Every structure is written in C-alpha cells, then in structure tokens.
Amino acid sequence: MSKEQVQVLQPEGFNKSRWTQLPRDVLIGHEAILQLPEIIADIKPGKSALLITGGTTREVAGEAVANLLSGMYDISRFIAGKLDSSTLEECAKAASPVDFLIGIGGGRVIDCAKIVSYKQGKPFISVPTAASHDGIISGRATLPTENGSVSVEAHPPVAVVADTGIIAKAPHRLMASGCADVISNYTAILDWELAHRIRGEQISEYAIALSKMTAEILVKDANLIKPGQEEAAWIVVKALVSSGVSMAIAGSSRPASGGEHKFGHALERLIPGAALHGEACGIGSIMTMYLHGGDWREIRSSLHHIGAPTTPKELNIPDEIVVEALMKAREIRPERYTILDMGLTRESAEYLVQLLYEE
Ligand SMILES: NC(=O)C1=CN([C@@H]2O[C@H](COP(=O)(O)OP(=O)(O)OC[C@H]3O[C@@H](n4cnc5c(N)ncnc54)[C@H](O)[C@@H]3O)[C@@H](O)[C@H]2O)C=CC1
Ligand SMILES: O=C(CO)COP(=O)(O)O
Ligand SMILES: [Zn+2]
C-alpha cells in the first residue's frame, strides 16, 4: 500500500488507541477447581503462589486449593479480612517473595489480589467463591477510601476458575446480589449515554451493547435462577463474566457502574455492611430508572423475582439513610456524571424512596 493510500485510510488527527486486556483462560463449570493445576501449567506463572482468601472462603475453597497445589508449587497464605490500605500493605508484604497470586473469595478478596498483583507486576488468578459481583474478570478494582469508593486501575486476572459447585452452595443472597449488579447495567448505560449527550463523554457502542445484552439475557433466564442450583450458578457467572468483558472493552467500569453505583458506594459509607454491593446497586437502579423516565417497575420486579431486596426495610436500613445516600451520591467520584448529578433535591430523594414501597 502506498503512503498516499495510508493517508486516505488514516485521516490527519486520528490518534486513538486502546489496549484491551482480558484473561487468557476462563474456566466455568462443575468441579472446575480441580483443573487449576492444568490452568496454571498452561500459564506458567512461576513456582510460588500466595493464596489470598477471606476467613470464610479459606474454609469454603482456600484450603482445598492449597491441598491441590502444594507439592507442585510453594504455597503461602494470606487472609484479607477487609479491603483497606493496611490490609493491602500487609498483603503486599506477603506477596513480595512469590511469583503469582490466587484470589479465592468474594469481590473484596479478588480486588485485593488484583490491586497487589498489579502493583508488583505479577499475574493473578481469580477463583470466585460466589457469583456476587461482576469484578470477577475486570481489570479495575474498587477501593474504599475516606472520601468514598474509587475505581482504581489494575489488571485483569490471567485466568478465572469459577467452580459452579462451590458457587451454588454459597448463600443465595450472594447470587441474587450478583444478579442485581448485572441488572443495574440498564441504568449504568443510561447514565453513560446521558454523560455523552450533556458533556460529550466518549462512549463505546460495543461495550454498551454487550452490557445491555448481558442484563437482558439474565432477566430472560430469571426463572432458572434458583437457590442451590448449579445451573443457576452457571447462568449468573456467565453474565458476570460478560459484564466484566464490557468493562474491559470500555477501559472503565462505565458500562456497569452509573448513578446507582454511586448511590451504592455512598450507602456503604453511611451504613457499612448493611447491604451487599449488588443489593445496594439494584435498589439504586430502581430509583435512577425512575429518574431516567424508564420502566423502573420492570427493574423492581426482576430484582424481586431473583430474590434481591427492593426496599431498604428488607435490609433493615432506615429510609432516611437511603435519602442521605442519594444526596451524597454526587460526592462519590464527581467526575462520573450521572442522573444523580443533575441537582436532585432532598424532596425528590424522599419521593424516590417512597416509590420503592409502592404496591
Ligand atoms: N473490581 C470490580 O470491577 C468490581 C468490584 N466490586 C467490589 O466487590 C465487592 C463486593 O463483592 P461481594 O462479593 O459482594 O462482597 P464480599 O467480598 O465482601 O463478600 C461478601 C461475603 O460473602 C462471603 N462469601 C463469599 N463466598 C462465599 C461462599 N462460597 N460461602 C459463604 N460465604 C461466602 C464472604 O466471606 C463475605 O462475607 C465490593 O467491594 C465492590 O465494590 C464489585 C463489582 C465490580
Ligand atoms: O461495581 C462495578 C461494576 O458492577 C464497578 O465498580 P465501580 O463502581 O467501583 O467502578
Ligand atoms: Zn457493581
């Protein structure tokens, strides 16, 4: 091709480039954990590993993984009780002598492994023990700070091993929360499109299409999402992976995190631990869908059908705290423009909360 032809294909000023990182291996299924040795052999990440778990997930899967891998690799362990700067510091110390990390647990454990491995330039493997969040494969991590949650750059796992047997045995509340995290994609997308129209924020049509399709398929399959069923775990994990890919394509969490997530992060700050991440975002999504003028009742009934909470009362959260979280949402990640950043009044916030109880 001549230089002239190249110039025609690449008009002056074109300087876009995006590096999309995705895991190399994604294994979802029955007894998938038993295939960890083959996955690791495929990746060849080194000889020594740090297994990062929570207290519960150490019992649920951590020790089984340690038993499976010891003899083949030098295994050390770290328990990440919570996700804060001192835990990250301790974890970094434990990780410094090893070649690779394995995060075995819920979203906080996986984010801990993601952040520490990224900072040390080491590969990490994600072993979710619950289908509770869509950060399983994403390259971003959510870090709680004094001023609210921040989405920090990290890297995706080199491999994901999601054992549907283990995940199906986790409390159903966790799976319902993961479904709510995916259902909230509907409003995250509307917020992103809003920011595009009002502020010229760049959007990705591919990321939007995938994020929306993921939520649609999950809602279509809602009848199959039953407690204790491996098929349900299969359906939900696939949705979480797909949602994570949409974030990887976007290069940000935008396709899966909008005003409903800002509300969720604000709620977590006001009343830590009262709601799971996806539960808070699901409730937020009902309210922001109303503000967008969309079918908020459809969001509410999908959440209800799957077994996720739709009112603060179900989580023993006072309505006034939810109003406060709606008002504070604009302080969380202010650069992320959403429907909650358009001057919501306290009166309207109170109305939104009452709407959740409407028969
Ligand atoms: N990086 C990203 O892109 C994303 C990050 N997140 C983050 O992930 C976190 C939320 O994740 P969650 O998993 O909801 O919370 P979490 O990590 O706190 O886990 C919730 C609870 O589930 C328990 N658990 C996990 N597996 C279990 C099992 N098999 N049996 C019994 N108990 C089990 C854990 O011990 C914990 O008590 C938040 O910090 C959120 O911001 C959420 C979505 C995306
Ligand atoms: O939770 C997420 C997507 O579901 C992404 O998290 P952030 O809201 O921290 O970006
Ligand atoms: Zn989320």
Automatic annotation (TrEMBL):
Chief location: cytoplasm
Binding-site residues, glycerol: 134, 181, 261, 277
Binding residues annotated for Zn(2+), in chain numbering: 181, 261, 277
Keywords: Cytoplasm, Lipid biosynthesis, Lipid metabolism, Metal-binding, NAD, NADP, Oxidoreductase, Phospholipid biosynthesis, Phospholipid metabolism, Zinc
Listed GO MF terms: glycerol-1-phosphate dehydrogenase (NAD+) activity; glycerol-1-phosphate dehydrogenase (NADP+) activity; metal ion binding
Subcellular location: Cytoplasm
Cofactor: Zn(2+)
Catalytic activity: sn-glycerol 1-phosphate + NADP(+) = dihydroxyacetone phosphate + NADPH + H(+); sn-glycerol 1-phosphate + NAD(+) = dihydroxyacetone phosphate + NADH + H(+)
Cellular component, GO, one term: cytoplasm
This enzyme's EC code(s): 1.1.1.261
Function: Catalyzes the NAD(P)H-dependent reduction of dihydroxyacetonephosphate (DHAP or glycerone phosphate) to glycerol 1-phosphate (G1P). The G1P thus generated is used as the glycerophosphate backbone of phospholipids in the cellular membranes of Archaea.
Family matches, as NCBIfam families: PRK00843.1
Protein name, per record: Glycerol-1-phosphate dehydrogenase [NAD(P)+]
Organism: Methanospirillum stamsii
Gene responsible for this protein: egsA
